[in-house]
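Q: What does the predicted 3D structure of Knr4/Smi1-like domain-containing protein look like?
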Amino acid sequence: MLDGMETLEQRLERVREKLSRLDRPKIFGASSHGCVLGPPLAEAQVATFEREHGITLPGAYRGFLTTIGHGGPGQFGGAGPFYGLTPLHHWDRILMEETKKPLSQPFPTVPGADYGKGEDWFERAGVDEDGEWYPGAIALADQGCGDMVALVVTGPARGRVAYLFWGRAPMFTADADFLAWYERWLDAALSGAEHWY
């Protein structure tokens, strides 16, 4: 422990323990993935992904991938919010363009900024409406109806989770990082909640 703060290892262990207690939760999307994760990725696999894309994954997400699990049996992924956690190899499910921009480009928005209510957010965020809307982020989960969840991997909002809605600026969660977001979902699922956001 540093300065009274939990270590990443302690947080990962707590998440692993909570995940092991999930048994047929009622929460939305659980039936699509059965609350099962695929096995963790090897360090070499994650390092290869990072090297190929010129990035370093945020520590909380990277630790989750290499120690707890990755993807899963569902059509969209494994145990996680909405329709499940997207496997790392499907990181590009949030991209709008066939020509993929590198993950090394900064994500265009930051938490707390006002980008407007409608499609004018593109201009305010400096995004080419006809280009790629979400560089610098990977897909985390499919919310359904074309809405996605992303993890920002490059830029000032690196490490933060954002909800992506068609025609609106990304909305950042209040969670400090991926693990806080994931654990909040676990807590809701364990409490018997049927819906979560």
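A (community wiki): The structure tokens above were generated from the sequence. The chain has a mean pLDDT of 86. Helices lie at 8-20, 30-33, 43-53, 59-67, 121-125, 178-190.
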